[in-house]
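Predict the structure of SpoIIE family protein phosphatase.
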Amino acid sequence: MTRRVVPPTALVRIDHYSAVHLAAATARSIAQESGLPGAMPDRAAVLASELASNLDKHAKDGALYIQSLPLGVGLEIQAADRGPGMPELQRCLTDGYTTTGTLGAGLGAVSRIASDFTIRTQVGVGTLVCARLALPGQPQHLCQGAGLVCLPAEGEADCGDAAALAEHDGVRTAIVIDGLGHGPHAAEAAQTALRAFDAAADRPLPGIITALHRALRHTRGAAVGLLRPRPDQAEYCGIGNVRALALSPDGVHHRLTGQPGVVGWKMPSPQSRMIPLTPGTTAVLHSDGINHQWAQAPSPFQLRLPPPLLATAVAHGHRSGRDDATVLAVKPHLGPR
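Done. Here is the predicted structure for SpoIIE family protein phosphatase.
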């Protein structure tokens, strides 16, 4: 079984040129913590510096989201802004192209250095970028089809949300945990639940929640949502206010919330529900630190985003700063077993 417990996302707001240095230092540190060897942490710093500099020069309300990969060994840097967007994307990806009189190496350099590079832009809406550095030699599918952002409440050092992905026999299991409240005690509950998930991730989903319930009895408890996507449907099992839905280019489908209760305190017998998945559909879990109204009428641009950019777009545009906030977007594992 492959499992990956991802620490909270580092958010670096690019509201001044000095944030470029902070972004580079943060990326280097997380790359080292993620197990990237040799010169790869320095490459991560270059990626962050170029993306942050691009946001500082060209965008408004820009930010970088930096973290370990949801699956596999490596790091990802997500850039998000609220415009103006790029009307000539291919020219912007060419080394030497500039609109500000600078060298113009930014996005072209990022696309060359990154192991995987994805960008989407719309004029008047903004631009989203995902640049990943993955440890060479690991299966490529581990880095595909999943996106995650997990942020503490503003002003909090500890994150009361947590999330993880596991893969067993070609099947992925995703979990989002929302420890009651926020701060250190919520974080303790969330981390206790993650450890229990790590030991039980290959069980049936109701069995996983039952295992978490036992582990959380001496904590303040948590809301928990589990998703197990397959090519034609996703199984969902949840207790508390962790929402699940399916997103396709045609719209949002099958919005679900967990059964009433608190994992670790009082909960009903957990029951699974099925969400049909048509081709091209992404399954999403999110905690209540994300305003659920984002899914009422997402734009066609948002509906077509790949999972990493979808998670970032939802967090960047619809997070409540007063609470911990997590979005996990995942497609079934379709790679080689």
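Helices lie at 18-33, 40-58, 89-92, 106-113, 184-200, 205-215, 300-303, 307-318.
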